[in-house]
């Protein structure tokens, strides 16, 4: 069950995928860079499996609190069952709608969420700004050229991936270029002390590790299938597309990367 629009990665094992790909070192580095400190009350918007929320909760101790908010009841239930602490809580909510009853937060974290809400991304950020205290920090994190940057890829596979991504962009509210828009969201809301950081989220070469293999194969088999793309490049349709992708991605000569953009700003005092 979900209380929000269709999620293109929706499948039975999505909580497992989110758990596997969440890297503690990256979460700690990004949240500390953004200004997370002990004692803060933190909102993790689009918290998914709850693993990141639990990490943020540990990082804001002592005396801090973390609240995970997600539109999927399945993911919230997973989080409640697997990530527990006295200062940690979760709620299933539609973050298109007002969240004022959750109270005010010192730090609002929105990571890998807005890319699934292309048309309403700025409105979501506006809504989340309402639950941030004046002087509080809003941190937005997303990818750019999402799933699109590969070297050594067969021509028809590259074409198919580009066409699938465009179809998801036009028909499923997905934005493969959300990362580059985050700065302007904060700027247009008059946030102060805005800072932007650029790094590599995916940097894949050589032998494929278990996490990247599982994550990318799930992206292909779930998002590509959910796109309802015709796979006209392949006589064998979707199954032949998946077979070619798996062969390409398992090749240690393959090189894949995805830029990650982090933007943080301080809400004006007035």
Offer a concise description of the structure.
The chain contains 9 helices and 8 strands.
Largest sheet: 8 strands, mixed
**Relevant CATH superfamily:** Vaccinia Virus protein VP39
Number of separate strands: 8
| First and last CA, distance | 39 Å
The second-level CATH architecture is 3-Layer(aba) Sandwich
Note the overall shape: globular
- Low-pLDDT windows of residues: none
Q: What is the domain tally?
A: 1
Specify the number of helices.
Answer: 9
Q: What would you call the structural class?
A: alpha/beta
Residues in helix, %: 25-40%
Radius of gyration: 19 Å
Average pLDDT: 96
Order of helices and strands: HHEHEHEEHEEHHEHHE
Beta-strand share of residues: 15-25%
Indicate the CATH topology.
Rossmann fold
Highest-level CATH class: Alpha Beta
Organism: Syntrophotalea acetylenivorans
GO molecular function, one term: polyprenyldihydroxybenzoate methyltransferase activity
InterPro entries: Methyltransf_11, SAM-dependent_MTases_sf
GO biological process, one term: methylation
What descriptive keywords fit this protein?
single chain, 270 residues, alpha/beta, Rossmann fold, 38% helix, 23% strand, globular, methyltransferase, Methyltransf_11, Methyltransferase type 11, SAM-dependent_MTases_sf, polyprenyldihydroxybenzoate methyltransferase activity
């Amino acid at each position: 069950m979900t209380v929000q629009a269709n999620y293109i990665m929706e499948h039975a094992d999505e909580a497992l995928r989110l758990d596997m790909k969440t890297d503690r070192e990256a979460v700690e580095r990004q949240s500390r860079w953004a200004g997370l400190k002990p004692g803060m009350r933190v909102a993790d918007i689009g918290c998914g499996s709850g693993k990141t929320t639990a990490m943020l909760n540990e990082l804001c101790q002592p005396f801090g609190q973390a609240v995970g908010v997600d539109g999927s009841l399945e993911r919230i239930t997973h989080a409640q069952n697997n990530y527990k602490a006295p200062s940690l809580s979760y709620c299933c909510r539609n973050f298109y709608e007002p969240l004022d009853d959750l109270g005010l937060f010192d730090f609002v974290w929105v990571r890998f969420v807005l890319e699934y809400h292309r048309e309403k991304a700025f409105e979501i950020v506006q809504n989340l700004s309402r639950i941030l205290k004046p002087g509080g920090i809003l941190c937005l994190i997303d990818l750019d050229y999402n799933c699109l940057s590969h070297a050594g890829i067969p021509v028809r596979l590259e074409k198919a991936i580009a066409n699938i991504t465009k179809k998801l962009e036009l028909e499923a509210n997905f934005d493969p270029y959300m990362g580059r828009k985050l700065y302007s969201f904060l700027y247009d809301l008059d946030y102060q002390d805005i800072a932007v950081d650029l790094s590599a989220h995916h940097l894949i070469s050589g032998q494929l590790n278990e996490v990247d293999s599982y994550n990318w194969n799930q992206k292909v088999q779930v998002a590509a299938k959910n796109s309802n793309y015709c796979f006209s490049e392949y006589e064998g349709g979707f199954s032949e597309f998946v077979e070619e992708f798996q062969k390409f991605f398992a090749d240690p000569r393959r090189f894949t990367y995805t830029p990650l953009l982090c933007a943080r700003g301080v809400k004006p005092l007035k």
